[in-house]
Fold this protein.
Amino acid sequence: MSRIVPGPIRRRALLAIASGTVAAPAIAQAPWPNRPVRIMVGFPAGGTTDILGRIAGQILQESLGQPVVIENRPGAGSNIAAQAVLRAPADGYTLLLGSPGTNAINPHLYANAGYDPLKDFLPISQIAEVPNLIAAHPDIGARDAAALIALAKSRTLSYGETSIGGSTHLAAELFRLMGGFEATHVSYRGSSPMMVDLLPGRIDFGTDNLPSIMPHIRSGALVPIGVTSAERWPANPDIPAIAETLPGYEVTAWFGLVAPRGTPPEIIARVNAALRAGLEKPETVARLAELGARPLPGTPEVYQARNEREFVRLGDLIRRVGIRAE
């Protein structure tokens, strides 16, 4: 059987590669992204978090030139989605739509959330902020925060919120603590179940995301007591802020994109630049305003500073109230 014997030149080349004196040809890395990017959302389709995730996805898809797929992984206050992203490769193809739950609340609320938001994820950019609104049934007679607090001190009221340990729950609890009154707490799994009791007056007041509750305010079915942002909300300037009665009061919902730690900094920078440009477009600002949200384009550093600040502040509130996930 014949065999091919390398000639002198080929033999020297092979020996050089084997000895390491000549590098083997490098395999070129395809530029990022060269396939679809996935954004994990920890809540069902149709809610505020999901809608904001889809707005961010559309911005990135137009900028990056690749499909951006929204994958809803609801459950455990968004812990399931966060854990899935944590297990994904840190290559920029799997991102998480961060919320107050994932970024600041859940590690204090659950015995084992399965991740550390300040260590396991890299902030990319905030997307938008949405306040909550405390609203009362008209029959109780309170028309503002001072009147509701005075009424609650004169007799026991009942109040509801839309997610145990979520921003609506913490907004209600901070209002109660700073107002200095006790009340009967009723927890609901979402806005619709709470409205079943709040609209007919079976509970006295409740807290919900501003976009969800505003239709009932406009119809006159509920009375707006105050928004939970530090100041009046630009889209609803006629509604006072709770902070006007209780200085220092603030509990809003803020949303942004994060990536698994180890994601290359150039990918973080590119996604950040795309989001900031997209969030500043007039059509995006208008779309967010329709949802009762305002855009929050900014740097990863600004996003991380807020995460760290709220992680401490909301964690302290959770411990004071004694909230634990069921």
